[in-house]
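hey can u check if this looks right to u? its 110 residues, i copy pasted from the old doc so theres a chance i mangled smth
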Amino acid sequence: MKWVEELRRLLRKVRQEEPTECAPGGIPCEEATARTFEWLDGELDPEMEERVGRHLETCARCYPMLVFERSFREAVARIARDEKAPDELKDRIMESLKEEGYSSPGASRE
């Protein structure tokens, strides 16, 4: 469990230092973390994508958060692939949508 000890050491160091700006990418931690989801989704322009990526992947303060977000997304994707919503849930959702005036494609309107 050496990696756990290293992660704890890094988190202690980050809490003590609390940097407001890191050299990687030349952007503040706050901006990098605010753009994490855009970066993970590939929604940034190439220059900003490179700057945010460099920061997130090399900043001792931001990297643990990036690892968590990537792992969380992978877990959700894995569950989504393996699980199927029960038919009762699908029926309740469709009924709620109908009550709001939505009709499924191909369905006839009354």
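The radius of gyration is 21 Å.
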